[in-house]
Amino acid sequence: MSRPRILFLQSSGDLPTSFERRIEAGGYVVEMLSPAEVAALERIPARVDIVAVEHSSEGADGLVALSRLAGSAPSVPFIFVAEPGQEEAAVEALQMGAVDYLFRDAESTYFELFPAAVNQALQRQRLLNEKREAEAALRESEDRYRTVFESSADAIMLLDSRHFLDCNNATLVLFGYPDRESFVGCHPADLSPELQADGADSRTEAEKRIAQAFEDGSNRFKWLHQRRDGEVFHAEVWLTAFPLNQRPVLQATVRDITEQVEAEEAIREANEFLSTVIETCATAIFTVDEGRKVTSVNRAFCEATGYDPEDIIGKPCDILDSHPCIADCHLFTKSSSTPVSGAQCELLTKSGRKLKILKNTALLTGPNGRITGGVESFVDVTELSEAREATEAANRKLKEAMAKAKELAQEAESANLAKSAFLANMSHEIRTPMNGIIGMTDVLLNMSLSAKERDYVETISRSSAALLSLINDILDLSRIEAGRLPLEDRPLDFREVVEGVGQTLALQAQEKGVEMIVRYAPSAPRALLGDAGRLRQMVLNLAANGVKFTEQGYVAINVDARSVTDTQVALCVSVTDTGVGISAEQQGVIFEKFSQLKSRKPNAAQGSGLGLAIARELVELMGGAISVTSQVGEGTTFEIVVPLQRDPEEVAVLPELGDLSGLRILLVENCALRRDVLGELIRSWGGDCTCASDVGSAWTVLTAGHQADQPFDFVLVDQALPDGAGLALGRRIQKAGGEDPPRLILFSGVKGRETAEEIRDAGFVAFLAKPVRASQLRTTLTALLAGGAVAVPEENGLSRAEGGPPSRASVSHARLVVPTDVDVHVLLAEDNLANRKVAQVVLEGMGVRVDVAINGEEAVRQFREHTYDIVFMDCQMPVMDGFEATRLMRTFELADQHTPIVALTARAMPEDRQACLDSGMDEYLRKPVGKDALSNVIQRFCFGADTEPLTLHGEAPDVVLRPEQLRDVSSDDADVIRELVSAFFSGAGGWVAALDVAISSEDSEQVSRNAHALKGSAANLGAGRLQRTARSLETAGDAENWAAAADAFDALREELEHLKDELAQRGWLPS
Predict the structure, then answer these.
(1) Positions of E strands within 382-489
(2) Could you give the CA distance from residue 435 to residue 846 in angstroms, rounded to a whole number?
(3) pLDDT band at residue 325 using 50, 70 and 90 as cut-offs
(4) What is the pLDDT of residue 816?
(5) Within 13 Å and on the Cβ side, how many CA atoms surround 1042?
(6) Contact between residue 715 and residue 666 where contact means Cβ atoms under 8 Å apart
(7) Which helix (H) or strand (E) element contains residue 665?
């Protein structure tokens, strides 16, 4: 650290050199200026820390020097040195800005005092500088807050315990007040209707919420507000307490959430509507879980089979003793690739009568795509069985062929790897006809159908989707074997993934009387980068295996971090069960394909033997390892260790809400492992958790807490306590009452026996299904602390929040599609390979038969040889363009014949549309043409549907790629996308080469033609920037502006490279 520098301004120059040496010996650097040098000095140098000004009645006047120089260094302290008897001069010096003064009397006294005076002056100046900086920072902070306050789009107000003190402009707009003066002074109840949605008095409730915010520091809640004109709206309110001018105030932030509330109500009504439709439809419907046990039936099923719901729910579906899928279940056996769609078979009713039925099935999947069960529907077709004899004969031949194929497959076992590689390349070939089936069912769903017809079609739709999902599973397995399974690297919340597995298997475990427990170590990172679907599949396969072979006890999923850095984590996932165990012999082969555990139960379902093998393949594909430890009769533990990248931005992880520090919670849970898991979780949030294993010990703890004036805030109770004691404990606590009784939360299985009314009557204010998600528990505690409400279960044992997304068949179909009972034959005339491929994929996906022509001349020839329902005509084609082809087609038509011809063009000016109509075309579509546009035109011209003509597309988006456009036209099929991309680049290479030559030779026509072709293909691909650049090049070529054309061509090649990079990152660029 450098020594302080002292500038000494002498008045007489008679100071001895010993004085200077003594000061420097005290840790200072001294610079002495003579009177002459002082007189010449105009300002204090920047390097000086303190100035001593000497004053003498006979020498130089120190007051003059101080007056002249103090202003040049306002942050440098001055010490005034005078002779004894010059007190008035010293006082005047202080008034002029000096911080201290000394009298030069006896030399020894002066030398002793001078260093101390210098130290004191420097400290005083440092404190003064710090004060100035703090005041400046405070002013800046206040200015910044005012700026945020005024510019915020949210309504922000300041209020004390009763009135508003200030507001921003957004507040005036939200509540309809003309100015601040009319708003300030209002009470919060003045901005509310008299009563809230729950019937509470607004003024009373508002004062409670305000008081709670002052007490807790913040409060967040939903509220009914009212604008000045009387309009009532739903709002979300945040109250935050802070001091303002040493006075406690609240900042209130109000946001209008009316649309959100209305949307939630609409979803609830839609779910009720769907339940009513299923129960009242005339088609028999029943559902099964993953173990093929019946979980629900509708009224038509009971009427057809004679079974009451209680007779069959919970029983294996083979009680019907007729389905051909029992021996080889199409729902759950991956070796089958034949859909159960429209299958005719026999069904045995309760009375023993056999029915011939037409049956369809579909898989039910959870949020992450994991199969959770299936749905089956059937109708009685006994009277139509004779009409199916020819079909049954064909089926026999097919079975013979399949048997022969199976025999050949066994002979070719040595070529298994080649088989896997072949299957991995068959994705598009298998999915294309499936897309046609799905498209045709979508068409039917948009037609006017009776309830029974709609149910048939929806069943076909569900079955098709189920088959497609099954095919995807089979192809995934083949890709793993062939080493071609891609892994995603996207943000994920791994705790949500693991807890989702637990909830997926909860019902199956509950029905076996097995506890499903999930622990995610609080210290383990959650925000990761990886393939959430594949990670979930690994854990689910292991946990499902545990549930399958466990008859009592528990299955526990545990996640810990083995090693953690700023960028990576090695996660250890273990799945432990208390099941039958695995012998040492079987442990050696358990991860081999088609290896099945030997069950102690006769005829027990063994599965395909692929679950553990797939888990091992996926773990190893991610660079991890899997192991198993087990003792026969004592249970099994599978352990996965997998390295994953951490997500520094934590995109997929929602922030934890609410401060639970110091919250006193009593956990009443008879399962010791779950007790430990939940206790650890609550304590990691700062809560004070006490555990009890039964009602007696719980009541003892509650009583002790009350007597010690340390009551509990919450009591968490497992419904599965012995003899139904969970609800009994709730009623006992409720009956005891008290000034501030604890709030009760019930944990229950997915299918609880108690009704919502019984749970509420027992005093419980919230209900959570086991295994409890950490985020749900924390959200529930936070909501209840804030005075909110939490849903309790409906009659089926689940709260509304627990419901999954609607099935594909239950979602309304917004698109117009082609009816599947009508054969629509179209001619597609398009020379551009990429554009032709896109349109063909879309049309065939809707079930339309498509003939293609690559120029106008070929289109005219096919038009003369065949009859078409509609013609889609590109306007710019080689040999003969679309305008000339249309005119020739019109000359070949008979007087009573008119085939609709629809233009496909990338041009958008009104005169372009008119040119198409003048040539004899009936409609005009601008590229890129999507599903909706094509379906709209077919509906209008082929079926007379009352649809509005589609408007022109807007400006091309300023993005490298719109991936949703490719997913839409390909039905989200990666292989189809790669095929479309390959077709695009096949044409793009030729157009770029032709453009290079045309620009060099200044050939305007060729520049315009090739740029136009590239522009249309880019539009169909969703490459917005490339489309815009090609348009600029086309415009420059038309204007013969060759400088602009050269610049646009350079930009076009650059955009092509950007497009390749984007496609490669998504795995869509063909190798």
Answers:
(1) none
(2) 8
(3) very low
(4) 38
(5) 10
(6) yes
(7) strand 664-668
Alpha-carbon distance of 543 to 539, in angstroms, equals 6
Token duo for residue 561: 């971090």
CA 517 – CA 199 distance, rounded (Å): 40
Q: Are 939 and 947 in contact (CB under 8 A)?
A: yes
Per-residue exposure over 346-382, b if at least 16 CB sit within 10 Å of its own CB, e if not = ebeeeeeeebbbbbbbbbbbbebebbbbbbbbbbebe
Secondary structure tally for the chain: helices H, strands E? 34, 32
The band of 351, judged by pLDDT with boundaries at 50, 70 and 90, is confident
Dist CA 539 CA 533 (whole Å) = 10
Residue 731 tokens, joined? 């009623």
The beta strands (E) that lie in 142-231 are given as: 155-159, 164-167, 218-226
- Residues 819 and 444: their CA atoms lie apart, in Å, by 5
Residue 946 class from Cβ within 10 Å (0-12 exposed, 13-18 middle, 19+ buried)? exposed
C-alpha pair distances (Å), 295 with each of 290, 309, 362: 10, 9, 15
Q: Could you tell me which residues come within 8 angstroms of residue 690 by beta carbon, excluding any fewer than 6 positions away?
A: 664, 665, 666, 667, 701, 712
3-state SS, 202-214, equals HHHHHHHHHHHHH
Strand 514-520 versus strand 553-564 pairing type: parallel
Mean pLDDT, rounded, for 314-327:
64
Residue 769 DSSP SS3 = strand
Residue 186 token pair? 């209002």
Q: What angle do CA 332, 572, 581 make, to 5 degrees?
A: 55
Measure CA 38 to chain center. Answer: 74
Question: Across the chain, what does the average pLDDT equal?
Answer: 80
Are the C-beta atoms of 943 and 819 separated by less than 8 Å?
Answer: yes
Q: How many residues are there in the chain?
A: 1071
Whether pLDDT at 676 is above 90: yes
Q: What is the pLDDT of residues 548-601, one digit of tens each?
A: 999 999 999 999 999 899 999 999 999 999 999 988 888 888 887 666 665 545
- Sign of the dihedral defined by the CA atoms of residues 306, 310, 313, 317, in that order: negative
- The pair of structure tokens assigned to 772 is 């409890």
Distance, CA of 578 to CA of 632 (rounded, Å)? 10
User: Could you give the CA distance from residue 443 to residue 445 in angstroms, rounded to a whole number?
Assistant: 5
Place of tokens 């004390």: 160
Find residue 575's DSSP bridge partners: 557, 638
Q: What is the distance between the alpha carbons of residues 693 and 718, in angstroms, rounded to a whole number? A: 10
Cβ neighbours of residue 440 closer than 8 Å, sequence gap 6 or more:
818, 820, 846, 847
DSSP string, 2-26: PPPEEEEE-SSS---HHHHHHHHHT
Contact 184, 166 (CB under 8 A): yes
- Over residues 511-546, the pLDDT tens digits come to 898 999 999 999 999 999 998 888 998 999 899 989
The span from the CA of 852 to the CA of 833, in Å, is 11
- By CB atoms closer than 10 A (0-12, 13-18, 19+), residue 812 is exposed
Q: Residue 88 is which amino acid?
A: E
Q: What letter would DSSP give residue 262? A: H
Q: Are 363 and 466 in contact (CB under 8 A)?
A: yes
Per-residue model confidence as pLDDT tens digits over 958-994: 678 888 778 777 766 777 788 888 888 877 888 888 8
* Distance in angstroms (rounded) separating the CA atoms of residues 535 and 540: 9
Three-state secondary structure call for residue 90: helix
Assigned token pair, 722: 């012995």
Per the CB < 8 A criterion, the answer to whether 787 and 812 are in contact is no
Instruction: Give pLDDT tens digits for 996-1007.
Output: 888 988 898 889
Domains plus CATH for the chain?
Answer: 5-132 (3.40.50.2300), 152-256 (3.30.450.20), 296-380+412-482 (1.10.287.130), 490-646 (3.30.565.10), 664-677+686-800 (3.40.50.2300), 825-954 (3.40.50.2300), 974-1065 (1.20.120.160)
